[in-house]
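TICKET: design request
STATUS: open
ATTACHED STRUCTURE:
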């Protein structure tokens, strides 16, 4: 024996499905309306945007990337435009342009000096030199001259080396300890030898 079927079960289910489909359609229409309104607002904002302000920021970014100036360029652009409200956007834009440009190439001033062949010191050491120590590049067999040296010793040192300067040392009483007292340049030694600027006889202690 089976239970009797419930009357009226079909029409309420169909009505619920109809209401759900209508709700989904209404939600989709609302979402489309919101999207269209946002697009219209964005278009209106672009239509009413201050193009001169964006042009000013773009020009400042270009100058910042070329010259790598930050604070001075920001002040110059603010004074030229007479717009104090653009200070913060200009600072952020110029700083970003400098950081990005430093990754790829040097500034226009560094490039001009390199093309002209001017010697200059970089702002920071290359990555290959960061772990380099002084003992890695220093000479082991340093040619030094005594504070009182013979002319032939000086001439021999000039002939066998190309150093631009020579350390001047003072030998201790034991003859083993040496103390650095200064340095003498190569052209100075050439001048002394050419002028024969030797110590007069009898002015040096015995054995020198």
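STATUS: resolved
RESOLUTION: sequence designed for all positions
ATTACHED SEQUENCE:
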């Amino acid at each position: 024996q089976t239970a009797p079927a419930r009357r009226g079960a079909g029409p309420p289910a169909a009505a619920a499905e109809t209401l759900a489909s209508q709700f989904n359609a209404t939600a989709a229409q609302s979402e489309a309306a919101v999207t269209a309104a946002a697009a219209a607002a964005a278009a209106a904002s672009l239509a009413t945007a201050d193009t001169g302000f964006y042009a000013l920021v773009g020009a400042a970014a270009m100058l910042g990337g070329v010259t790598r100036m930050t604070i001075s360029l920001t002040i110059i652009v603010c004074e030229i435009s007479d717009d104090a409200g653009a200070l913060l956007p200009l600072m952020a834009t110029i700083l970003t342009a400098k950081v990005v440009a430093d990754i790829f190439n040097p500034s226009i001033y560094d490039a001009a000096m390199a093309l002209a062949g001017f010697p200059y010191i970089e702002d920071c050491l290359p990555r290959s030199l960061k772990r380099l120590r002084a003992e890695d590049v220093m000479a082991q067999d340093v040619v030094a001259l005594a504070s009182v040296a013979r002319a032939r010793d000086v001439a021999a040192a000039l002939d066998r080396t190309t150093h631009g300067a020579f350390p001047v040392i003072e030998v201790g009483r034991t003859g083993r300890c040496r103390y650095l007292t200064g340095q003498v340049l190569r052209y100075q030694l050439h001048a002394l030898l050419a002028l024969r600027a030797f110590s007069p006889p009898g002015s040096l202690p015995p054995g020198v």
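CLOSING REMARK: Residues 137-195 form a domain with the CBS-domain fold (CATH 3.10.580.10). Confidence is low (pLDDT under 50) at residues 1-9.
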